[in-house]
Design brief:
Layout (H helix, E strand, L loop, with lengths): L12 E6 L3 E10 L3 E11 L7 H11 L5 E7 L3 E6 L7
Antiparallel strand pairs: 1-2, 1-5, 2-3, 3-4
Length: 91
């Protein structure tokens, strides 16, 4: 998938699910042909918690993003999907 597909998300809080155990929740700042850059990011390793990925994302939507990085660059080849945090459905 090219970086152009994500341009509509620039400036928005997003959830980036990757092929690794990491999920990134933050504000999408820039997208290039090879990577996307997020700011005020919560980098979450799903392998280090007992909470499900969905529960973790819903809590971020409900209580706010608990950023642990000022900025992160994610290679597009590792991205499975990107969604707006506001589009997460709480159940």
């Amino acid at each position: 998938m090219s970086g152009e597909a994500f341009q509509a998300f620039v400036g928005v809080d997003v959830v980036v699910d990757t092929t690794s155990s990491y999920v990134f929740i933050g504000r999408l700042k820039e997208v290039t042909a090879l990577a996307m850059t997020l700011s005020e990011v919560d980098v979450h390793d799903r392998a280090e918690t007992s909470s499900t990925k969905e529960r973790y994302i819903m809590e971020a939507k409900k209580f706010g993003i608990k950023s642990n990085r000022k900025a992160v660059t994610v290679r597009l080849e590792t991205v499975l999907c990107v969604s707006k945090l506001e589009d997460v459905i709480e159940y």
